[in-house]
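Teaching note: in complex prediction, the entire set of molecules is handled at once rather than each chain in isolation. The prompt given to students was simply: 'Predict the structure of this complex.' The entities are:
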Amino acid sequence: MKLIKKITPIEENFSQWFIDVITNGNLIEYGPLKGTVIFKPNSYGIWEQIQYNLNKIIKKEGVRNVYLPLLMPKSLIQKEKEHVDGFAPELATVTKVGDKKLNEEIYIRPTSEVLFAQLFKSEINSYNDLPKLFNQWANVVRWEKTTNPFLRTSEFLWQEGHTSHSTEEEAVNFSEKMIQVYKNFYKDYLALDVVIGKKTEREKFAGAITTWTIEAMMKDGKSLQAATSHYLGQNFSKMFNISFKNENNQLINVYQTSWGLSTRSIGAIIMAHGDNRGIVIPPKIAPIQVDLIEVLANKDKNVITMANQLKKELEENGIRVRVDKSDKTIGFKAAQSEIEGVPIRIEIGPRDIENQQVLIVRRDTIYKALVNIDKVVIEVKKLLESIHNDLFEKSRKLIKENIIYCNSYGKFKELIKEQKFVVVPIIEDSKELENKIKEETTATARCIPTELDLCLKEDKCIMTGKLVNHFVLFAKAY
Amino acid sequence: MKLIKKITPIEENFSQWFIDVITNGNLIEYGPLKGTVIFKPNSYGIWEQIQYNLNKIIKKEGVRNVYLPLLMPKSLIQKEKEHVDGFAPELATVTKVGDKKLNEEIYIRPTSEVLFAQLFKSEINSYNDLPKLFNQWANVVRWEKTTNPFLRTSEFLWQEGHTSHSTEEEAVNFSEKMIQVYKNFYKDYLALDVVIGKKTEREKFAGAITTWTIEAMMKDGKSLQAATSHYLGQNFSKMFNISFKNENNQLINVYQTSWGLSTRSIGAIIMAHGDNRGIVIPPKIAPIQVDLIEVLANKDKNVITMANQLKKELEENGIRVRVDKSDKTIGFKAAQSEIEGVPIRIEIGPRDIENQQVLIVRRDTIYKALVNIDKVVIEVKKLLESIHNDLFEKSRKLIKENIIYCNSYGKFKELIKEQKFVVVPIIEDSKELENKIKEETTATARCIPTELDLCLKEDKCIMTGKLVNHFVLFAKAY
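The expected output is the structure of the full assembly:
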């Protein structure tokens, strides 16, 4: 029997708290290589729920799932220069099979634009074949220097959508639609509010014309890029000759998008909803929604019967239930349920049988209530809904209270130190200024927000003093 | 618009037929590296259905899904000598990241026994923690010399289950239970009959004590290993120190199993059910179960309305439907539906509106019938059931008629030439004899069948003449 270690308080040391909850919450085990992790049942279970629900949504958009190879020859990725430059230092390179040296080096995919290029090339001939909307669920490898479970791992899991369209307008619209899909998905399933916007030139995806992003706020005030959607223009289609004949028989290169959401989203959930008892999983994507705990002082048969009956009823109502049958103590089971973030815990003891009631505990608020046995299903359904809504409301409030407009660099530096989201007027071509800001404050340009109402019409650039109507959200980020 | 190429008749050239149907059936595109393939929507769709259904079954057995790293350090796999020897020549080896040479070589997983060892080690302390039943859906890489889409690719997708138990008996039973699960899964979802048995010493998994297999018969008579389940004993638990304290506080190494089913299963479906019109997908795992084809000579609005109505009704009954809205001809759409193996095709034309009926075509038999519009849902449900049962019956019959008992090596060689499944009496320790047989006939020992009634009580070994009660199924195999 494993003991639960003490969790470092969130206010005391946020990164230690994170490590404590993920290693005790049945979420991860470190892998044998630096920067790799094992997704244990609780975190992989969240990922399965994300997959299941996001899949339904993107399939409704007409997207079809495919699977492309893990490995690509060096020559393939080198065709798109900006793209390969962006990924080169992180590419895991296969040079041998068994004892045999390969003629050409092979890369493990860091993303699959160049592989999809091949599929599009063979699938597209005429306007009749467009649009082509594909997606794959896959693992990718980016060997980064600094790693952090869920947030930045050498290997991660994601979905990557790749689409080809006959016009620029359609592709642009599709890339914008997908970032809205992600924003809604975070709201409706992960109970997280996000800031939506475009990446600056410095921050955009290597090979994209426009990168859309959603940025979520963690409990320490830092930003986490929660998903991205890229408009790729004809960058890849020109390099890889992906073209179609239009109605006038002219040969035209397709316009493309790509968009992805990864296992980072699990990190977002943990850091945005967790507390000093452990993680808090939003009900809709919780692998287990209800923990049924039997209080079995005297191995009371009636308690077991009632628990089984309740499990059956809840499951018939589509609720995911776990009964821990081990001989661990109630206290241990309750603590384990809390650290693992199970939305609702129900305790059933011999006295409850007499009174025809059970104790229901909400994970997010630890609010406890005795509920009549006949009302449990209705109450659980209501609570799952409330927990979701309350978690989202808290997330919305956190951003609202910690996003600040500022037009002085002095004040900006203070706010960044306080780990706020800071929106500033800044000149449009700000690559060098962003470098300077990062060096002096560690903050980075998260996005050019497109849906915030706190920007003025125009204001003086915090770095150059020039009058601008261009605003960027800066923050420290994961 | 892509044209469908002529399919080589199955009787004329089986391997060319296979290539023709997979490249025209929306199944694969070759990847940029030798031995890699792109799973297009039709084949990945089959895999999604297999995942969805098999997941439900293995979760009912108490198995929980996890995800382990793709990459492992060389030193890790080298701990189990027999295991690494089995895989060494096929291991894709990462030696560099970007331009930097790594200190230790890294392998891409060919299977994950040694990675799961680490998870078990950290999860298991006492008998209270056992059994531990894990599974992962993942890609693995085995760089084989001869490759063939679906059947033998450098990278393939699979599920690999890994379990730890407190007793030998429990682990042995679990490994046997899982091969039965696979056998039933092939019957209930893939409509395929299989031969169940143990692998001989020569053929068993590197590191296993016993390897159970199910072998399916392809239409050319060759055998395809359809899934395996291994009893690993304490081979890995001793090497990796995976142990638990039993009730008497004694430290004992766990007993383990592993079991897997891969994208080869898609190859099995194609080669066992396909015909000269293309592939035939068993209804339960068909990504699209019904193709609705509008006969739109005059762009008749009533036809579109009726097709939409029918689509809605079928989907409300849980049936997966596709409507091809392109302006391709009826003939093209029908041929495409057939080559892609969609179980049922429904054609709706203006005259059908008048008569309140539609034309329903079964893919497996090309049997056509006019059905009253009110009866379509019931008829489709009945047909899907019939198609499944008939496909299974054909598969059962194919094996029954082509599996032959034989006790003379001369006759054996003839039967193997005719691509039969041949069961022979042979001495138990037959490694060298198997080498000889393979050299002389290209047939390999598929399994020691455990559920066949055609073996005698004892008979003379076909190679040594000794009286034995040990029988092995030989066949040419993929």
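Point out the following to students. The longest strand of chain B covers residues 155-165. Residues 166 and 466 of chain B are 40 Å apart (CA to CA).
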